[in-house]
């Protein structure tokens, strides 16, 4: 039985992620567009030293022209520290991730460079105010991330005006509830990065997409080509993205016949890292969108934060010793993210263990032990050694990827026999 507080949170999450609510937002936004007699208008937040913004700048000139939509470029410089607990690790990983994304989308990949000066942001801010800004912005980003050539100058008289504009843009971004750059907000919905652009495209056309997602529900390589390889997955019982990944991850490991190691860690907030409200809400909606695409039930939630997570971690090693870690992890995450079952409740826990045929005396003993903390800490240290801090993360051979939407990168790696 959920407590009153948990029941209210669960009801809010179910409403907030519901398809009915999203459809209502779409209808309201479309009515506004019809009144203005426009195909659409949105905002796109970009940052000079963000490689994801650079990738987006390459495709938006073509995107806006094809769909006759107006996306207003908003150049920002400030990021909330609370949203980026490991900023340097993110910067290092983002560059490599964007290089892989660029190859998948046939774009020019970013080249590593030193930190950008204030001038880069000012020049982008000035270009954003032009009547046809996207081609100019794309050219400037290319100078910054690929050519490393000089960018246009700025008249000294304009500098204070542009500096104030950047300050105003930073304020607007926070007020609008954004925590990421390379973010598009269009007619009631948010889309981060080039690999969410296909969702916006599908709103604008029933035809062929310019930028379809490379993350499909099929595997491209020969079965059993992963024999002898070990695929490690670091995950959290409190991560909705971990839950969305699991079924597809199991299918991939079975298809390629590679050994799968599941390595649970504590969620960020239980490791002293902050997750602000704006970030939590975006993740919730994006996870629902991704779950729908992969036909995974999602949205009837009982947040396992705290005792629920501790219970799940304690019993994971009982299930693992019985060779049932896959079934167990899927049952626990499904309980939290699609069935609103409170796994901090001992009665619920016992019922779930009974369904999995886990030995309950062994489970009771594990719940009274703190041994799981050592394993969780060891897994946390390992993921940092790979240059990551968040989950889900997958490591195989020399490939290190972060995010359930990067499973296709693992598939490509295995299909090439690497």
Task: Give an account of the 3D structure.
The structure is a single chain. This protein has helices at residues 4-16, 19-36, 51-67, 87-104, 118-128, 133-147, 159-175, 197-204, 240-256, 277-293, 307-321, 325-337, 346-355, 360-367, 372-385, 407-415, and strands spanning 41-46, 70-75, 183-186, 189-192, 230-235, 259-264, 393-396, 399-402. α5 runs antiparallel to α6, α9 runs antiparallel to α12 (325-337) and α11 runs antiparallel to α12. With 418 residues, it is of the alpha/beta class. The protein has 2 domains: 38-204, Glutaredoxin (3-Layer(aba) Sandwich); 230-415, Glutaredoxin, CATH 3.40.30.10. The protein is 53% helix and 10% strand. β7 and β8 (399-402) form a beta hairpin. The protein is globular.
């Amino acid at each position: 039985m959920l407590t009153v507080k948990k029941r209210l949170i669960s009801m809010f999450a179910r409403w907030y992620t519901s398809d009915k609510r999203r459809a209502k937002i779409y209808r309201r936004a479309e009515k506004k567009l019809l009144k203005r007699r426009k195909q659409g208008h949105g905002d796109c937040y970009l940052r000079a030293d963000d490689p994801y913004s650079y990738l987006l700048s390459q495709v938006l000139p073509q995107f806006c022209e094809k769909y006759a939509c107006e996306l207003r470029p908003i150049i920002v410089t400030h990021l909330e520290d609370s949203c980026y607990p490991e900023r340097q690790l993110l910067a290092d990983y983002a560059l490599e991730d964007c290089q892989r994304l660029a190859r998948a989308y046939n774009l020019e990949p970013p080249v590593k460079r030193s930190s950008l000066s204030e001038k880069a942001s000012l020049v982008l801010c000035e270009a954003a105010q032009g009547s046809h800004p996207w081609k100019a912005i794309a050219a400037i980003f290319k100078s910054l991330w690929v050519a490393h050539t000089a960018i246009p100058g700025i008249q000294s008289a304009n500098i204070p005006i542009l500096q104030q504009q950047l300050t105003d843009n930073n304020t607007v971004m926070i007020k609008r509830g954004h925590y990421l750059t390379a973010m598009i907000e269009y007619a009631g919905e948010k889309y981060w990065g080039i690999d969410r652009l296909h969702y916006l495209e599908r709103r604008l056309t029933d035809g062929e997409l310019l930028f379809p997602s490379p993350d499909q529900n099929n595997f491209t390589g020969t079965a059993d080509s992963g024999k002898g390889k070990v695929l490690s997955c670091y995950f959290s019982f409190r991560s909705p993205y971990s839950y969305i990944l699991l079924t597809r991850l199991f299918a991939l490991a079975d298809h390629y016949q590679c050994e799968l190691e599941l390595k649970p860690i504590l969620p960020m907030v239980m490791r002293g890292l902050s997750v602000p409200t704006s970030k939590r809400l975006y993740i919730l909606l994006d996870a629902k969108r991704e779950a729908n695409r992969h036909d995974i039930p999602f949205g009837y939630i009982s947040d396992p934060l705290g005792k629920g997570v501790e219970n799940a971690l304690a019993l994971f090693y009982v299930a693992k010793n019985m060779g049932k870690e896959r079934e167990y992890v899927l049952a626990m995450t499904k309980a939290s993210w699609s069935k609103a079952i409170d796994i901090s409740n001992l009665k619920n826990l016992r019922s779930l263990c009974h369904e999995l045929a886990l030995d309950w005396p062994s489970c009771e003993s594990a719940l009274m032990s703190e041994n799981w903390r050592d394993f969780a800490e060891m897994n946390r240290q390992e993921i940092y050694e790979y240059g990551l801090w968040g989950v889900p993360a997958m490591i195989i051979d020399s490939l290190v990827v972060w995010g359930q939407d990067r499973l296709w990168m693992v598939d490509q790696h295995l299909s090439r026999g690497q």
